[in-house]
TrEMBL record:
It holds the Pfam family Porph_ging. InterPro entries: GLPGLI. It comes from the Bacteria. Keywords: Signal. Residues 1-25 form the signal peptide. This is GLPGLI family protein. It comes from Gelidibacter salicanalis. The keyword Signal applies.
């Protein structure tokens, strides 16, 4: 009986937070800047020379995964995209040069209509991925911390995720693992939104961590002097998320076959991520 009462109280608290959020979000808009960091674990065969190569590859990957993103938002919509920057030349070491091909994704979310549009590019072809927003079963935790001037609350969800990894014989292996995604959100910014495709909490998500990728908000401008225009992207071949996943898997397999058929003296490694 006591357990049921606690659960009911928690649901009522969450519902109340959402009601306050919705009332406060009228004519609310802003711009949030996020910086990314991705943990890199790139392994090669044992040997002193290979260890040096591994270190060089990890350093190059680390630098290229450090990006900056902008989330523009109002009470119902948001647009999330990577900020353009002039990349400094990256000298190759030991004949190895790493290139990250992550396209120029633009993610539009409509919280009210529960849908998203992702304009993305893979291997030179542009796609427009349109589908329903997949809601997460967030667990609200009794932990807080400050991010800048904002008091943030902790939430998390668990999910099984399939990833592809290179094997020692240059093949591809699919691994399924449980990933715990942790979010820190602030009701002080009363929108149920966040970076990338994250949403669904009673306040703007300022930090996300899924074990490998971390996104942290570094700046927020609320109700800027100039009105924000959020325009849904329209360029690319329109597909569903499932269709895009199938296309991406096929293209990745084709790329691996091409790489395996080439001479091992090639000096460029290309990593591609999209969607």
């Amino acid at each position: 009986m006591k357990c049921t009462q606690k659960v009911t109280q928690k649901v009522l608290v969450v519902a109340a937070l959402f009601m306050v959020l919705l009332m406060n979000a009228q004519d609310f808009q802003g711009v949030a800047t996020y910086k990314s960091h991705r943990k890199v674990d790139f392994k090669v065969k044992e040997g002193n020379e290979n260890k040096e190569v591994q270190k060089q590859i990890q350093e190059q990957l680390k630098r290229q995964f450090q990006q900056e993103y902008t989330l523009t938002f109002n009470k119902n919509e948001s647009l999330y995209k990577k900020n353009e920057k002039l990349e400094a030349p990256m000298p190759s070491s030991s004949g190895i040069k790493i290139t990250i091909s992550d396209g120029s994704d633009i993610i539009y979310k409509n919280i009210k209509e529960q849908r998203f549009t992702n304009q993305t590019e893979i291997y030179g072809k542009q796609f427009l991925v349109k589908d329903s927003l997949a809601g997460k079963t967030w667990e609200l935790l009794n932990e807080t911390k400050n991010i800048g001037q904002y008091t943030c609350f902790k939430a998390q969800f668990k999910a099984e995720v399939k990833t592809q990894t290179l094997t020692e014989d240059n093949g591809m292996e699919t691994i399924t693992k449980e990933v715990i995604t942790t979010a820190w959100y602030t009701p002080q910014v009363p929108i149920s939104n966040g970076p990338a495709r994250f949403f669904g909490l009673p306040g703007l998500i300022l930090e996300i961590n899924d074990g490998d990728l971390t996104l942290v908000c570094t700046k927020i401008v609320i109700n800027p002097a100039e009105e924000i225009a959020i325009v849904e992207p329209k360029k690319g071949k329109e597909v569903t998320q499932q269709e895009f996943n199938e296309i991406l898997e096929k293209k990745n397999n084709e790329m691996m076959d091409q790489m395996n058929s080439r001479s091992k003296n090639g000096n460029t490694v290309i990593f591609s991520s999209g969607g």
